[in-house]
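Q: Got a minute? One more chain.
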Amino acid sequence: MTDPGAPAGAVPVENSSEFAAAPDAFQRLWTPHRMVYIQGGQQPAEHECPFCVAPKLDDEKSLIVARGTHAYALLNLYPYNSGHLLVCPYRHIATYDQATPEEVAEIGELTQIAMRVITEVSHCDGFNLGMNQGKVAGAGIAAHLHQHIVPRWETDANFFPIIAGTKALPRLLGDVRQEIAEAWPKA
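A: Always. Here it is, folded:
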């Protein structure tokens, strides 16, 4: 359904009250490009691990915003919100208990810095932080440890509809990566 008052080229939005089902308060924004991620198998072979490949590429191409000695921070390719970062150790390990004390410390330090930088550049009101350990726990890439840093705003939806459904993102990944990387404190 296209809003007659919408500008030319606007993305159509469907109102759920017009469907043959119990209406709800949500509108749907269709994002078929995500099917590559959903259907393509979220668990890559070890030699294809995106978190092992990313540090070998340039920062812009891999969406890396900061590199440390034991871990690095990059934008999530499939973010829940604009500025959704991941912090990963360079070493290919699956769970937090396999991390060395140095890796744990640097993951924590990068997380703190990321929160400060994202707050500064995006004026968010809070964060969801988390690690899904193992495929059964919801880890998209279960073979390589990674922590999510999801910025939240008072006016965004609550976390569960975001995970269960589709989220419209107002900014391009490359623009967000550049803004966060430029604001990241230099060593």
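A: The mean pLDDT is 81.
Q: Perfect, thanks.
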